[in-house]
Structure formats: C-alpha cells, structure tokens
Backbone:
C-alpha cells in the first residue's frame, strides 16, 4: 500500500465512523437502538460503495431477505429478532476501529506491497461475513409455564433443515458475489469472509494451508472484529 492509499483508507474509515456516531445505534454501555441499525448501514452503503448499481443491488438484497429481522444465532450472541443486523453493525464498527492500528503495523511488513485494501473492502467484508445466516433460522414454539404456572406457547429460533455444504464463510462469499460480482477480482476480500471464523469452519484438508491466509491483513482484521463484537460486547 502506498502512503496515498493508506491516507485515503484512513479518511474513509473516519467518515464511516462519523456516520455510526451520528446515528448512535449501539451505545458504550451496551444498550442499543434496533431502529437505528438499518439507517446507519444504509447511510454507510451510500457513502462507501462506489458502484451505484452494486449499492442498489446490495440494499435491494438486504430488504428482500430477512437480514434486518433474523437472529445472529439460536443460543448465543444476538439470539433475538434483529440480532443479525445488530451483530453485523457491531462487527463493522469494530473493524473500523481496529483498522488504523492494524494497518499502521502491517505497512511496515515486507508483505504490505502485495495489498491495496480500501475502506470499502473492509466495510463489505464485515457487512457480508454472516450473510449465510439470512433465511437460515425459523421460529418454532415450545410449551413452557409462565410465572402463574399456566402453560403457554413460547417462541424460539431453530435452524432450518437445510444443508450448507460449502461451509459458513464460503456460503457468505457466494451470496456476496451474487450481489456484487466485481468482488470476484478481490481475492483478499473473499479470503477474509471465507476464513473469518478461523479454524472452526474448516475441513481437515483446509486446515493444512490455513497459515497462508494469515498473510492477508483483512483476514486478521475481520476475525478480530467478529470475535470482539461477540465475546467482548456480546453483540
């Protein structure tokens, strides 16, 4: 990365963080405003996605799926209506916060010349990393007793009976490419989304060359953002 590319990256990152702070969807005390999640993400898309056609396709896809209402999981972080979009936005924020310290260090390494990462790349990788969870959970009901001892139907989320043979990260890559085909030419973004779960989403054969992906700073950035969003902030 050149000095100019690095400065452009940092400028756009600050602009995206300003958008986040303007809407203030997730507060420092852990509270959040679900109604503010969608306008924050849409404003970010309008600012950072350079192709008007791909920006429109992305927003259309988000509205046609259950991205805005789906949970992020059935039992862990974000296991409630809207949890997926909330978790995604927190991952975006974390990725943006970690960008400067990570890239400042990375550009001093010998491999820095092999990457030209933009703020759009960081935003898209974070936005798309869990796309595979759209239309993936269904609502079912179980009989439970309420505080008065009466039996009531309690809703809960359950994974639909579908096979995701490509793996968690790779399914998200496929969806991202269907929406934004230009990213077929950005392998480092595909790698980041594909490997954002580290070893936990790999077959035995894939684990042998996993270390090769760690030369890609976007892989490490997205993993860090995803893990801190869920483990530090339970979002």
Residues:
């Amino acid at each position: 990365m050149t000095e100019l590319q690095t400065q452009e990256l940092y400028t756009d990152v600050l602009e995206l963080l300003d958008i986040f702070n303007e809407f203030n969807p997730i507060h420092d005390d852990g509270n959040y405003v679900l109604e503010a999640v969608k306008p924050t993400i849409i404003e970010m898309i309008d600012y950072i996605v350079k192709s008007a056609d791909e920006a429109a396709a992305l927003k259309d896809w988000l509205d046609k799926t259950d991205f805005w209402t789906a949970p992020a999981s059935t039992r862990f972080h974000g296991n409630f209506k809207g949890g997926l979009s909330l978790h995604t936005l927190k991952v975006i924020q974390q990725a943006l916060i970690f960008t400067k310290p990570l890239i400042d260090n990375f550009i001093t390494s010998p491999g820095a010349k092999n990457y030209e990462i933009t703020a759009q790349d960081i935003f898209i990788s974070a936005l798309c990393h869990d796309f595979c969870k759209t239309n993936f959970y269904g609502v079912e009901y179980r009989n439970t007793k309420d505080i008065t001892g009466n039996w009531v139907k309690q809703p809960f989320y359950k994974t639909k009976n579908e096979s995701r043979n490509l793996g968690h990260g790779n399914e998200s890559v496929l969806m991202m490419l269907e929406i934004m085909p230009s990213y077929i030419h950005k392998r480092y973004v595909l790698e980041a989304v594909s490997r954002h779960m580290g070893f936990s989403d790999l077959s035995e054969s894939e684990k042998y060359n996993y270390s090769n992906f760690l030369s890609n700073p976007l892989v490490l950035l997205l993993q860090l953002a995803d893990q801190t969003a869920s483990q530090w902030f339970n979002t």
Observations:
- The radius of gyration is 18 Å.
